[in-house]
Amino acid sequence: MNRNIKLTFLAVALVATAGACKDYLSGPGLDENPNLATEVRTPNQYFIGIQAAAWSVQEGGLARTAGIWHQQFAGVDRQYSSTDIYSVGEDDYSSDWNFIFAQGGLIDIRKLRAEADKVGDKRYSGIAKIYEALEIGTAASIWGDIPYSEANKPEIANPKLDKQLDVYAALQTLLSSAITDLSAGVGAGPGGSDLVYGGNSARWIAAARTLKARFYMHTAEVNNGAYALANAEAKLGISSPAGDYLTFHSEVPTEWNVWSQFSYYSRDTYMRAGKALVDTMKNRGDVRLTSGCPSGQNWCAAYFDGTVGSAPGQNLSSASNISEPRLYGPTENLDFRQPIITWAETQLIIAETAFRAGNTAEALTAVNAVRTAAGNTAFTAVTLAQIATEKYISSFQNIEVWNDYKRLCLPKLTPVAGKSQIPARLVYPFSERNANSNIPAPSAQVTRNQNDPNACT
Amino acid sequence: MKSFKLLLGLALLAAIPAVASAQTVVSGSVRTDAGAPMANATVFIQELNLGTQTNSSGSYTLTVPSARANGSSALVGVRSIGYTARSARIALVDGSVRQDFVMVANPLRLGEVVITGAGTVTQVEKLGNVRNNVDSTLIRRSNETNIVNALAGKAPNVEVSSQSGEAGASSFIRIRGMRTINGTGQPLFVVDGQPIDNSTIATGPSTASTAAANRASDINPNDIESVEILKGAAAAAIYGSRAGQGVVLITTKSGKSGPTRYSLRTNVTTDKVNYDYPLQTTFSQGSRGVASACAAAGCRLTSGSWGAKLAAGTPIYNHFDEMFRTGSLVENTLTASGGNDRTLFYLSGGRVDQKGIIAGPNNFYDRTTLRLKASHRLTDRLKVGGNVSYIDDRGEYIQKGSNLSGLLLGALRTPPEFNNAEYLDATFGLHRSYRYPRPTATSQSNPVGRGYDNPFFIVNRFENSSNVGRTIGNINAEYSANDWLSFQYTLGADYYGDQRLEGLPLTSSTTGGIGQVLRADFTNLLLDHNLVATGRRDFNTNVSGTLTLGQNLTSRRFRQLFAQGSGLIAPAPFQLDNTIASNLATDEFESLIHGESYFTQATLDLWNQIYLTAAVRNDGSSTFGKSKPRHWFPKASAAWNFTEKFRMGEAIPSGKIRVAYGQTGQEPGVYSTITGLTTGAFNDGYLDFGLSTTQAGQGGLITSATKGQENLGPERSKELEGGFDLGLFRNYADLSFTIYNSKTEGVILLTPAAPSTGFLQQASNAGTISNRGVEISLNLRPITRPSFGWDIGLQYGHNKNKVDDLFGIESVDLNTGGYFSGAAGAAVRGRRVGVLRGQDFARCGLGVITEDGTNVDKACGSAAKGALYIGADGFPVVDPTVRVIADGNPKWTGNVRSAINFRGFTLSGLLDIKYGGENWNGTKGALYNFGTHRDTENRGSSVVFGTNYMPAQPGASGAVAGPGAGKTVTIGQSWYQGDGSGFGSVSRQFVEDAGYAKLREVSIGYTIANPMVVRGLGFSSVELRLAGRNLKTWTDYTGVDPETNLGGAEVAIRGIEYFNNPQSKSVVFSIGLNR
Questions:
Q1: Inter-chain contacts counted by CB atoms under 8 A, chains A and B
Q2: 3-state secondary structure string across B259-322
Q3: B75-101 residue pLDDT tens
Q4: Cβ of A258 and B690 within 8 Å?
Q5: Is residue A168 within 8 Å of residue A213, measured between CB atoms?
Q6: CA distance B717 to B772
Q7: Which chain A residues in 159-218 lie under 8 Å from chain B, judged by CB atoms?
Q8: What is this structure's pTM?
C-alpha cells in the first residue's frame, strides 16, 4: 500500500512537471528574436526605409545604365566599359530588383499601408500607394511583364508575371485611389518623416497626377488614346518647380546622393560626360551644361565640369580629357536632391501631348516655360524633336530618359559601334529567375516590352 | 540477476543502519587467478545495498548490521574492471563469515556497466552498437590538459586536431564525418549526465585574431573516470536533436567507501616547437636583384626579399626560431576521496600553469579547477548527491594568421638580414619593422602603421586575454521505489562568463597605427533537468527486460557584447576610456533556446544471449518551426552473443554480432524560424556607403531579406550499423568490426527565394549528406602474466563523406568563417563537406578555355588528361574555372598502441596515423611572393616545366603539353610574384598532402608498491613516469604541421594554413603520490 502511494506520487509529479511546461517552448527570447525588432514603434520607421530604398533604385544602377545608354554619360572604365557597349550580365541588376520588391520595397510598402489602414490614416495610405506606383512602374517600364498581382503573397513562392499593360492599368487605379485617400484629408500622415514633401497632401496629389501622366505616356506607343489622358492628368500635376519630387540627402556619408557616392567617392573613374548630351547642349547653348541655371533651381545645377563628351565605346585611357559629371565632382554637392517627378516633366508631357493633338500653341507655351525657367531663351515655334530634346536634357540622371527614347526615338542617338539598337529592356535579374519558375531563361526572353513593340530605326 | 547488476551501475553503494551489537562480518581476500592480490576491487551485497573496496593486499571487510543478520542468505559479488565479476552465496549468521574470491581476467570487459546516455545504462555484452571507451589510464597517458586532445587516436573515426601548440588553443573533434554544413559539427559533451558547453568563440575573425579555448578544456582530465564516445545515430539517438554529430559522455571520479585516500599528481612538462621554417638566407631585401636602402627616417621599404646576394659575413637571423622558446607546464592535482557506507565524496583541486611556446611575457594559460562530488544515502531507498566544479581560466594569446599584426606574418616575411629583435629603434624607442626600419619622431604621436608589425613588438606589447569563470554543477537523487522500479533525477547548470580583451597598441599596423581596445564579454548558461524512471522485470530465467521513461528539459542562454574603441589617446592603458569616443563601436547578440523532450527505452534479454533494445525520443525545441514543433528520434538494436549458443572453443571464446539503427538530429540555428526587421544600407556593391535605413537622423526599419522558415525542423541522420565483437584465442586477442551507413536528410542551408515574394532567402531543410564507413579494432595480449604483460592495440577507421544534394545547387560555402580567398571551404555536390574551392593551372582534358580564348584541349593534342598545359612562353597558364582544389578529409585514420608491463614498469606508446587529406599551404604561397621561402633561392635558374621544375600539384601526373612544352624559362621574381605566387590566382599549387604518422605518446612509468618502501615514505604507492608527447611526426607536408588549421574549433573548414602558429612537442615528468 505504502509502495503504491509512493508510486502514484511520483507518477503524478512526472506528469505535473510535464504539464507545467506546456508553454516551455515559446515566449520572450524563444519565438521572438531578441536581436531583431519584429514590429515598428511608428509606421514612420517603415517609411524611412522605403524612401531610402526608393532613392537607391531611382539614383542607382538602373539610372546610371539609362544615362549611359542614352549617352548622357559614357561608361569608360572596368565594368562600366561593358555597360557602355550594352554588355550587361543577368546578375548586374539583382540588387535594384531586390530593393523594389524586398528589403524596403513592395513588402515594406504593403506593411506601411496595412499600418496606415489599421488606424485609418488615409493620408499615409495614399502616400504609400504613390511609392508603390513609382517602384512598380519603374520595374514595369524596364522589365515589361513583372510579378505584381501575385507578388508579396506569403502563400505564393513563384509569383506569375503580369502583362506589362495590366500592371500599368493597375497602377492607374492605385494612383487614383491614392488621390482619393489624400483628398479625404483624414489622418496625420508621415509629417516630418516624409523627407520629400513633409506630408503635404496637395503636393502628393500633384505628384500622383504627374505620375499618372507619365504612365499613360509609357503606354501611348500601343494606345494613342493615352496621350489625351496624359495631357489631362498633367494639367492637374505638379504646377511649379517648388512642387518637384526631389530625393533627400545630407552631408552624412550614408545619406549622400547615390550618384555622388558612385561618381565622386567610390567609382570616380567609371563614368564621364556623354558626347550626345554635351554636344546637344553645346549646340543649343544650354546654360546648364557647365554653369547651372540663374535661378539656382536645384534641378538644373551644372551637369558637367567641361564641354568634352565621350562617345559610346570610348574608354578612359583613349580620352583622358573628357568631362566629369559635375553635380558632385568639384563642387562636392553630396547632398544634391535628385529630381524624380518634376514640374518640367509635367510641362513637357503637356507639350508632347498637345503637339500630338495638333495644339502647337499649348505645346510651345509649355516648352518655353521649361526653357525660360532654366535660363534658356524661348522658342518661337516648336517641333516634336525640340520637345523631345528639351525633355532629354531636363531628364538628366532620370530613368525616364529611357522611356521617352523608346516612345519617341528622339533625340536621334547613334548606338555604339556594332549594335543596331539601344537595348529596349533588361533581362530579368538572376535573383528572380534563380528562384521563380515563371521566369524564362535569358535566351527565351523577349527583347522588347509589350508597350514598346517598335524599335527605333 | 543481470538486471540487478544494472541497478548497480546507478548506485554502487550501500546503506546500513547504525551498527548494533549482533552482526555478520564478511571478510576475505580477492586474488587473480595467478594468485596476485587484487586492490580496488568492488565487493558488494546488492540486496543489502552494502559495498566496499579491497585494500592493497586484496582483502575486504563488509559488516552486515544485526537487523539483517537473520540467518537468511545473500549474494556477495566482486567486480573489477578487466575481470569477470564473481559472486557467492553466504549465510547471514551472527559472527564472522569468510569468503575469498579468485578473479579471472576478462579483457573484453563483459558484464561491465556501460553508460549509454540520458540516464540509461547497459552492459558490454548487451550493447547493440560498437563501444568506444576511453578510461582514466589512457587519458592520463595522453599528457594533455585538454580532454578533447586526450581523445586523439583513441577510437576509430574519431578525428581530433588541435589548432596549434599554443597554450590554451582549441581542439576540434569530428566523429564519423561531417553531417551538417550549418555549424562546426562538434559532438554533444555530457558530464555526469549533464550536457555542458563546448563552444569555441574567437574574439575576432577566425582567419586572424587569436586562438581561443574550446570550453570542454575547462574539465580537469585528472577528474575523469572514463569517457564513452557515442558514435553515430544508432548509439546517440537517445539525445535526439542534439546528437547529430555524436555524443561524448564523460563520467567523473567518485569517492569509494573506506579510508580517505589522498593523491597528489604533479606533471612537469617542457614544450618545444616541433618544426623549423625553411627560409632563404642568401638574398637581401629589395627588388629585381637590387637591395633596398633606407635613406632617411620615415623611409618605406619594399616588402620583398628579391634584392642582391648578401655579402659574406652578413649576420642573418632565423625569423621563425627566434619567436619561440621552451614553454613549460606545471600541473598539480590534489584529490581526497572516501566515505562510508552512507556518504561518499570526491574532492579535487587542480592547477595548470602554462608558459606558452611563443617568446615574450604575454603568452600563458593558467587553469584552476575545483570539484566536489558527494552523495549521501538518506534512507535505504533514497540517495541524494551533488557534483559541483568551479573553473578559473586565465590566458593570454598572440595575434595570428591573416593579420598585419599577426605573429608569423610579419616574422616570416622579414628579410634574412633584418634583426627583428631590435624592435624599438635606438633613437626614439619607437616600433620599427623591416618595412619601416627608421621611425620618425612623430610616428607614434601622429600614428602610422609599420607595414607588417615587428613580431617582437607583437609579443611584447600586445595584450590579448581571456578570463573565464565557470561553474558546472548538479544536484541529483536516486530513488528505489521497490526492487524493480527506480527513479533518477538530475538538475544541472553550467554557467560561465568569458571576458576578452584585444589590446593593440599605437603603431600596430592592422589598426592603421592608431591602436585599438576591443572588449568582448560572453556569457553562457545551460540548465538541464533530467528525470528518468526505470523498471525491470525478470519474467523467467530466460526472459527479462527493462523499461525506461524519461523527461528532459533544457534551457540554453547565450549573450555576447562587444565594445571596440579605435584610436588610443595615451599609449596605455588598454581601456575603452582611453580611446577616441566618437570611434566607439558596439555590438550585441543574445539567444535563448528551450528544449522539452520525452524518451522511452525498452530492453529485452532473451536466454542470456540475445539482447534487444528499442528507444524513441520525442524532442521539442524552440528552434523548430511552429508548423511542426516536435520530432521523433527512434532507435533499435539487437546483439546476439552467439557463442552462448554455439560454443567455439578456445579459438573464439566469446563472440557477438550486433546490428543497430537509429536517428539523430541537429537543431536549426537559433531564430531561423523568425522574420525580423533590420537596419542596414542599400548598396548595389559599387558604393562605399550606400543609403542607410537611417535618413535625416530618423531610424528606419526594413524587413530582413531572410525569411523565417516556419517549417524548419532538425537535420536528421538515419544510420544503420552492424558488426561483430570477438574474443579470440583464449582471449589473447579481440577483434571488433563495424560497418555503418548514414544518411543525413534535411541538411539546413539558405535557399534562394524569389525577391518578388519579398525575401531573398530562407533557411530550409534542403540538403542531403551521406557518411559510410568501416571501423576495426584489434587488441592483442601476447603476454598476460602478472609480472609481465604486453598488449597491442590496432585501430582503423574509414569514413566516406559525400554531399548528395544541395537543393539542386552546385556548391555552398561553409558559413562558419575561416574563409580564405582562393581557397574557400565549401560543400560541393558529389564531394565531401569542407573541400576547398579555388583555381589551378590549365590542364588537358578538362575543357578549359583560357582568359585569352585558347582552347586548351585542342592545344594539348593527344596529351593525357590532367597534363599541365604550357603556354607558348614556356609557362603554365591560369585555368579561369573555380574548381575543388583540396580535400582535407583523410582517406583513413588509424592508430597503433602498445604497452608493456614488467615488474612495476610500464612502457607505452601511441602512434596516430592519418592517411591522405590535403592542406592548403598559404604561408608558402605568400612567402614565394615575398622571396623569403627557401624554395625561392633558385631564383634566376633556367628551368623547363615538367622536366626539372613543377609547381606542387598533389595527385597530378607531372606530364606537360602545349605549345611551350619543353621550353627553357627563367624562374625568378616575376614568376614567384606572378602566377607562381600565393597571391596569384592559382591556389592549387600550394595544396599538399597532409597525411601523417605522429608519435602521440611514448612513456615509461614505474609504480613503487613495495610495502617496505611505501610504508617508509608514508604512501600506499608512488608512481613515476617520464613521457613524450608528439615527439615525432612523419609527413610529406612542408608547412608548420599537417595537423594545423588557421581557425580553431570555431570553424568547420579544415586544412587552411596561413601564417598559423606551429604545433609543439613535449617531454613530461610525472609523479603521483597516493595515500
A1: 237
A2: EEEEEEEEEEEEEEECCCCCECCCECCEECCEECCCCCCCCCCCCCECCCECCCCCCCCCCCHH
A3: 888 888 778 888 888 888 878 888 899
A4: yes
A5: no
A6: 12
A7: 159, 192-193, 195
A8: 0.88
